[in-house]
Amino acid sequence: MTIKKSVTPIIMIIIFLGLILLGNLALNSSAESDNSDTIHLRLGQVKAASHAVSLGIDKFAELVEEKSDGEIIIETFHDGLIGNDREVIESAQMGSIAMASSSTPNMTSFTNYFTAWDLPYIFETKEEVYTAIDGKPGEIVRDQMENNGFKVIFFPDYGYRQIVNNVRPVKVPEDMSGLKIRTTNSKIEQADFVEYGANPTPVAWSEVFTALQQGTVEGEGNSYSLLWDSKHQEVLDYATEVNYNYSSDIVVMNLEKYNALSEEHQQIIMEAGVEATEWQREIANKNDDIAKQEFIDYGIEVYEPTEEEMKQWKQASEPVWDQFVVEGIAEPEYVEIILETLGKTREDIFE
Q1: Is 264 exposed, middle or buried (0-12, 13-18, 19+ CB in 10 A)?
Q2: Among 70, 163, 234, 342, which one is most buried in terms of CB atoms within 10 A?
Q3: Using CA atoms, how far apart are residues 58 and 45, in angstroms rounded to an integer?
Q4: What span, in angstroms and rounded, lies between the C-alpha atoms of 181 and 286?
């Protein structure tokens, strides 16, 4: 009797633990079943969460979830949380993450057609930018990117770069003489400042504030909104609105992952990209206007060149076209397609 009494509780405990284990397995199985119908996609990029590009990406994710009734969830990672521009793009190409966004100058290793977008004054207005991106020039780039394993989803609007500095007012190119100006690694942007008479100095974005603070550089070129979001007004005094360079971002998806989706899900993603583009462009333009006024209110002296002065800025940068519009860099044929799409010639820009 004693043995039986001691065995019975042990058996009951084993049965009880077994039931718990089976219950947990059932719950886990149920969770996997629930999640099996949900597609989770990660999207990484470097800009601050408050920037217009980031807001557009979040809007895109929101639209995808809404249109798919929650079947597709896009997790967005801003501020370089999962890598810098190069790292997230390479991760998307390899399929480590599904999606990535980067500024187009960083994409020239995949197609040098993006080099043409960097040419000074090739896009003189936002309307021209949108006409080109939404037209034949944009389609050519989309096709080229597919050859490199990417599906282009949409092009967020980054904005025009203005010239800012902390030394003196700048009205015409001659006023740039000798100024140490931070640039990106873009050879075209560096050539722009050489033609203006400045000393271009490539500096990583994360180091620009300190470089301005310490005098390593005395100015830079960037959009009002990014400068304001990054608090660069604290180390700047003057801004000159010359629109010397337009920058776009690009959102891409790993092509194999895109092709693995159903036609319905593919359509949802592309439709969301179109709608996010329209929404984001409005926000980008609005935020840039707000940032410009914030610059002025802060005490930054913002100068808008006259029509005659703008002609000087354009003509000063024209030699950059001679240097870079050559086969293997900014393809002449592609540059001509852009100009034809916009209904203008090189002479129209610089005369």
Answers
A1: exposed
A2: 163
A3: 11
A4: 27
Output the tens digit of pLDDT for each of the chain's 351 residues: 444 444 454 554 444 444 444 443 333 333 223 456 899 999 999 988 999 999 999 999 999 999 999 999 999 999 889 998 889 999 999 999 999 999 898 888 899 899 999 999 999 999 999 999 999 999 999 999 999 999 999 999 999 999 999 999 999 999 999 999 999 888 999 999 999 999 999 988 879 999 999 999 999 999 999 899 889 999 999 999 999 999 899 999 999 999 999 999 999 999 999 999 999 999 999 999 999 999 999 999 999 999 999 999 999 999 999 999 999 999 999 999 999 999 999 999 998
Q: Tokens 């610089």 identify what position? A: 350
The sign one gets for the Cα dihedral 295, 297, 300, 303 is: positive
| 99-103 vs 39-44, strand pairing mode | parallel
Both tokens of residue 194?
């050489």
- 3 state SS of 195: helix
Taking the CA atoms of residue 62, residue 66, residue 70 and residue 71 in that order, the dihedral angle to the nearest 10 degrees is -100
d(CA 30, CA 281): 42
Structure tokens at 185: 């690694």
User: Nearest-5° angle of CA 317, CA 319, CA 324?
Assistant: 105
Radius of gyration of the chain (CA): 26
Cα 351 to Cα 347: distance, rounded to the nearest angstrom? 6
Question: What pTM was estimated for this model as a whole?
Answer: 0.85
